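LAB NOTEBOOK - FOLDING QUEUE
OPERATOR: T.R.
BATCH SIZE: 2
PURPOSE: Compare the predicted structure-token outputs for two unrelated chains run back to back under identical settings.
PRIORITY: normal
REVIEWER: second-year student, initials M.K.

ITEM 1
FIELD SEQUENCE / FIELD STRUCTURE:
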Amino acid sequence: MENCEGAFLDSVYDMLSETRRRCVLYHLHEVEETTVEELTRAVARREQGEPDKDHVRISLIHNHLPRLADVGVIDYERANGAVATTDGFDSVRETIEQSERVELDRVSLSAELTENR
């Protein structure tokens, strides 16, 4: 490979590098349009231990949703809390699906190992 300037790939892996952001992407893969409040509940359900929903909501509003909007995979309307996928999401959909499969396989394997102890 001659050219290793992978800005696009860097942004994809940056999106997937944080657990909460992955939860957002997985949920949006399922629904494509939602609100910050529904997304907060969905992310909190996916995270271990049902974290404080206010903390989840604040991190979505101030960190994760703006980052995802900046790279062009979502539209985020802060004024009304609307969140929707964009055409840019389609360009990373397969990678998001693969990431979710890997996580689900890991969780299944971990549960199986725990049962066999």
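ITEM 2
FIELD SEQUENCE / FIELD STRUCTURE:
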Amino acid sequence: MLVIFVYLLCLNWISYFLSYFQVPGWILVHEGDKWKLHQSWKVKTFVKGMEFLRLVADVAEAEGHHPDLHLIGWNNVEIDIWTHAVGGLTENDFILAAKISKLNLHHLLRITPTNK
């Protein structure tokens, strides 16, 4: 039987993982009593926003780790990543953020980010 332990990260480890996993554009948000990774984008159209979320959902499903995905208005995409089971950040959150950051999403965005 395989047992996997997921540990809630302290702020020192969060800082380490931010640099180790190279997650450009992701910011730390302290909401209530938990830390989350957050990023937002502006997409060209509503349909491009849905395509953006589908591409992220495919990665999340493959990882078995599901972020909070939001399409706000017709062109604002926001993602919050945190591990619900522990009420904060784990290493898996940074792995997922890194994989999302590596997706080719530029053709869906209104403005191409300069940091990618």
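REVIEWER COMMENT (ITEM 2): The chain is about 35% helix and 20% strand.
FOLLOW-UP: none requested
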